[in-house]
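Researcher: Next entry in the queue.
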Amino acid sequence: MSRQWAGLLGGLILAWLAAPSLGATDLPAAIDLRAESAQAAKAGGPLIVIYSRQGCKYCEAVKRDYLKPLAANPRYRDRVLIRQINQDGETQALTDFKGGTTTHARVASAEKVKLVPVVAFYGPDGRQLANPIVGARLPDFYQSYLEDAVELSARALKKP
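Model: Structure for this entry, 160 residues:
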């Protein structure tokens, strides 16, 4: 085998081995809900939180197909902040909407998240600005549900 072919084959093998890490769909983990929701409200939009868990293929699809593209969309990218809360994050530290110390799992439980994915829309006080999107729903309509909730949330932020 020629050196050129060996190099190409080696590169393909390395790309194949690295493929799982390239497909990672995790979004930034929530760290401080109070600060993150205030930052989003200042920009005129909601803090969007996806409640997820490891191994949830529906969560991965929602993150990959809807939330990541929304975050990159020029119409929304400067108006929303998207964070992930891991329902199975028992030791993942988090500051809640009131400034208290908690974990991802405890916040998910307090929000009564039982099945994932759940995409929720919050204002600076932790108030939900639109109904959460529960489950993966129909792919043909999910983008519309998401955009409608963002617009409804933005309008709710403008109300006193």
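Model: The beta strands are 47-52, 81-86, 93-95, 101-103, 118-122, 128-134.
Researcher: Noted, moving on.
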